[in-house]
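Predict fold of Probable multidrug resistance protein NorM; 449 aa.
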Amino acid sequence: MKRNAPVKTAELIKIAIPCLIEQFLLVVAGIISTAIVGRLGKAELTAATMCANLVGWLQCMYVGLSVGSTIVVGRIWGAGDKDGVKDVFDQSLKLNIMISVTIMIILLVLKKQIIGLFFGGAEQSVLDNMYLYMPYCMASMPATAFTTIVGSSQRGTGDNKTSLVGTASLNISNVILTPILIYGVSWLNIPAMGLTGAGIAFVSVRYIAVICLTIYIFATKKPILPRRWNLKLKKETILRIIHVAVPSAVEQFLFQGGFVMLQTVLITFGTVFQAGYQIGANLNGIICVPSQAISVATTALISQALGSNSLDDAEEIVKANKFIIWSVFSVIGVLFFFGAPLLVKLYTNETEVIQEAVFFVRLFAVESFAVGYMQAMTGVLKGAGDVRYTAITSAIALWGGRIFGTWILAKITGNGHVAMAIGLSLDFFSRAFLYSRKVKKGNWLHIRV
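Predicted 3D structure, encoded as tokens:
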């Protein structure tokens, strides 16, 4: 490393820590919610996670715009144009809210048709619970759009603390409301509402986060706040955001869509298999937290460095990125592999589901380094504005390896465990290799945004 590398490592960690805390809180709250729902039964657990994944997939149509906001704000902030930063946030927010409301309305109208299209092969008990839970997930979309665009715009200025406020308020209210509404509190005359209570909590905590985040950004007078609010859309600003955001949105749409399509394959192996996979995937969220935090921080720092034409700084950020990933993921995989039996018991006491979940947690643990390295290099390329490459390679690796590969192997072997193990490896390791090679070439240093 050059003498500047330790400085960049410290800077990267400093910016990543709030994002790390944010992601960790978000994942832990998700684990708690999933564990609470899991105690209702495997059908409820499977239905709730499949609904959340389906809505999360469709949210990519507008959440992907947040990447464009981070990159464009980072470039403008690095160039010292503070008025431009306000303009980008204003236009991004309007666009995100409009798209999210439109998608929400369409989903509410076509709920049964969409569930039938993707999950028609599920057991009837799972489908009944999905019909019950899905509307609550849909109603949360505008709230997610708001909090995402506020956090991503502030990250472009190097501020990860703002999004942490929204996440912390969401998680605290989630941990409180979810068990209360699911199981009830007799001395408060709150009845037990089961999965309906989980749905009410799901949507409520997201709007609580909107309220808390709005109060915070106005109270602290964040630099993204426009001097004057109006409903006018500015074509030039929106096109600049879309130019960067659309490939990222397509990438996320294809990526999250892969998870949904994968579930249509896994359904054929039964509800126990599916419930075990959902627990494994949920715990994999913790494994991914460090690399996601480093990736987000890298995107912001790379954008700022290239915006100020500091190419040497950008290269040192990459070295710092790699150093952190190697240090962290040499430990994480081992901990989760051997700790799997204890961790999965947080979700369920059903022996069959526990056995399935242990297998999947250990599978994700084995793949952890490839996942971490892949996400870290993605942060570099996105920070440079090279989102088309990540979109194309993600689509090929995910759909070719994880989805098509798993489907083919499941058909040939009739063994979902073997199919998943090979499919995941094809996906994660191929992307880690491709992104590493792309970053090493260095062309990303000269991309114009």
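The two ends are 29 Å apart (CA to CA).
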